């Protein structure tokens, strides 16, 4: 209803203000992009205008970088028509660019310039950038160690969990033995095993791998199992009348039908294994982002902590995104049957 | 004999003997008798329609013929051999299409050949079966993208691709609109005449039974007993307005307890 009156007004007003609608459309299309550019210019200025209250070496470069981003946002917006999908992507993210620019400006002013926030605990953006440039090798080592540990443990846990889930979902005998064990041990947080694991396993690395696998394995097992158990008998009937052998029933009926459940388990396992990874690295393993965090805290290097935290969250969300991409590929058939 | 005229031209179908079969289900400890002393001898290549009130046990009988369940009493034989388990020579089109949602239409139809490990050399059969039900252009669609009638046609193709000796149909045309339904009935008859498989068709439509089948078996209310075994001696293609069929139809509806209205 309101759209009617709006477009009516526009149409009737068009002859008198012939250029206004054009400007209005342009502003609607590109206004946010321009605003993003303004926000980043503000951030750049906030870096360079005042003197720092502390001693940070990257302030100047950060200001320049902010101007570069502002310029990219501006030209990307003005020239969006020539940039194809890149222009479209920028247009889509423009509101976020505005918010980010504003936030960084505020952060810069509140820390480096006027120290409204207590200083060692709230480092300015340039000191975090400084960590990435000056402490890069150590940070990369930590990332590498964490990814290696996480990937190994997760793959082992997911594989074992999946196989166990399928077996107990399929075979009564296996279910009889495994189900009570699962009931008894499964709900225990994997971190509770930490002290035992660290002195029973030959190395802290193998202990952590075991714990991560455990944290992953439990949800994957339970959900695979419930997925296999909830497959409708009608599917088996169809397959059996068409001459399917038991192996076909497992591989081509039970597993594909259970796959949506399996992925729920994989997502849950990923979440809980991250927790175990960080704790294990903080306590036992002398490498990885968890250890880096611990180390930074010991030296009261708060900028390093924030820097590591940001990397960690990028890695975690990257892993989740990757898992989503795999799921979307394997479960295309679900598109349209359920809400994603 | 007149009866042989109506039979399929090349009988590659199997004989089916249902001998004094009774069956019951346990529901909360109480026994629910569903089939009571059912005996039907089906000749190779015969087209038998099963009619009966809803819930009387028709689908249950089909499951026994398929070998999915064992009867409480009595025996079922396919060409003298006792039926103890499912076999691809007896293929069922279930009341519900139950397509596998994670497989495309083509892969659903290919299911039987894949399960028997002969898909690689026989891919053409899948294409042919899809052609037959007129869904070639939907080969890559997923089941949720099909209409109810299309899904049932895919289920039919999935059964036919296996070249069964006994084709077991549980209201396979129930969800089709009347036009597609008439076309599919004609398809079914010509297919049956060409291939000569034995057919068991459950339907709730007396007219459909009479247009398609050599024999119409009418069941009583649950527990199902054979109430009447009616031969339909008419050449194909049959005419819906045929007074002989109309007469039989009246007779069948009478057996189903609808004589007052018809
Ligand atoms: N697995 C089962 N467990 C318990 N009872 C069952 C089971 N399957 C069927 N029944 C019962 O057996 C009876 C016959 O069922 P069936 O499906 O054979 O009927 P039908 O003749 O095919 O009916 P319709 O024409 O409505 O499909 C019903 O009363 C039903 O409740
Ligand atoms: Mg039924």
Automatic annotation (TrEMBL), chain A:
Looking up InterPro entries in the UniProt record yields: MetI-like, MetI-like_sf
Q: Give the source's domain of life in one word.
A: Bacteria
PROSITE patterns attached here? ABC_TM1 (PS50928)
| Gene Ontology terms: biological process | transmembrane transport
Where found, per UniProt? Cell membrane
Return the similarity comment.
Belongs to the binding-protein-dependent transport system permease family.
Q: Spell out the protein name for this chain.
A: ABC transporter permease subunit
Source organism (scientific name)? Bradyrhizobium niftali
UniProtKB/TrEMBL annotation, chain B:
Q: Which taxonomic lineage is given here? A: Bacteria, Pseudomonadati, Pseudomonadota, Alphaproteobacteria, Hyphomicrobiales
Keywords, A to Z, come to: ATP-binding, Cell membrane, Membrane, Nucleotide-binding, Translocase, Transport
Q: Where are the transmembrane segments?
A: none
GO molecular function per UniProt:
ATP binding; ATP hydrolysis activity
Q: What does this protein do?
A: Involved in beta-(1-->2)glucan export. Transmembrane domains (TMD) form a pore in the inner membrane and the ATP-binding domain (NBD) is responsible for energy generation.
All residue ranges annotated as the ABC transporter domain in the record: 16-246
Q: Provide the protein name.
A: ABC transporter ATP-binding protein
Question: Where are the coiled-coil regions?
Answer: none
Which domain of life does the protein's organism represent? Bacteria
